[in-house]
Amino acid sequence: MKIRSKILAHENSIIKIEIGDNYYSKNQLTAESINIKNSDSEIIKSSHLITQGMVILDTQMYFSTPQTIVFEIDEETVVMNFICCNNVEAHIDQLESEKYSKENTHNIFYTTNYKATFKIPAFEQINYLSIILSKDFYYQIINEDWELHEKFSKNILLKKSSYLTSKYLPFTPAIQWVIHEIKNCNRNGALKKMYIETKVKELLVHQLEAIINLPVQKDQIDEDDYNKLQQAKLILDEDYVHAPTLAELSRLISLNEFKLKKGFKACFGTTVKSYIIKLRMEHAKELFKSKASTVSEVAYKCGYKDVSHFSAAFKNFYGFSPQKFKINWDYINFWITGLLLLS
């Protein structure tokens, strides 16, 4: 399997990896990294974990001018894809994809010969994690249990490129946490290989669960109730900081609480309470971009009167405390913007 990535404006490849397709339990896991900084115009940082049949790419990029990147894989592959950025325009041969990337979304796709062109906007922090598996490696992970995803498996057997699901889905807290564990693994040697392979399998389980538990479609709910549920979601979207109680929301949309609870879960795949927490946690993440924001201030701005309640909710959602998250964000922000100021 050959993996290549190149910026069209550059002569040399950014990523150039060649591995065997077959999985062997005793194959070693190697790590490599790429760090490119050209004056103040671009930063490229990519960490790779490589073994026979599997490559994990953790890539961050920043450009001061728009760039076009070509990415190619020359063999049959299954790719677990995790997008952590917005506004990247993608054109993928053999696959019908969403035109622009959406932050914190994931999907799985199979392709016989992957070739994609990505248009990267200027001044956008680009971050993605891709786990590229040979077909043989993927067989080992799922134990050839094709019933897990019957339609997708049929496409693989027919060598027909396809996505596991038609749209990229939002990260779940479980997916976010396993990604964090993979990126921050500090083990070495055989233990690291064992740990990473276990985490890849765990991540696949969470992806399959997210797809298996997709919410029902509009036509399975009464149209009038569906419109009211959409109204409820809009109310929460517009003011999740001072979100109404379930009873208040029920009155606002003229739908009884039972139908509201059941219908909201069916339409949007989550409870009203969980959806409010999700919106608040995403807002908290944005607020932590400011180095001046304290945990108490962020808690208040997200609708929490008690900092301990906010901290517990945050840790449950992201997997670590807001203070640790704030420290980690400061480091990421320093790397993205601070390096531009350093020579």
TrEMBL record:
It holds the Pfam family HTH_18. This is Helix-turn-helix domain-containing protein. It comes from the Bacteria. Keywords: DNA-binding, Transcription, Transcription regulation. Residues 230-328 form the HTH araC/xylS-type domain. It comes from Flavobacterium aquidurense. The lineage of its organism: Bacteria, Pseudomonadati, Bacteroidota, Flavobacteriia, Flavobacteriales. Signal peptide: none annotated. The keyword Transcription applies. SMART domains: HTH_ARAC. The keyword DNA-binding applies. PROSITE patterns: HTH_ARAC_FAMILY_2. GO terms for molecular function: DNA-binding transcription factor activity; sequence-specific DNA binding. InterPro entries: Homeodomain-like_sf (IPR009057), HTH_AraC (IPR018060), PchR_regulatory_protein (IPR053142), Tscrpt_reg_AraC-type_HTH (IPR020449).
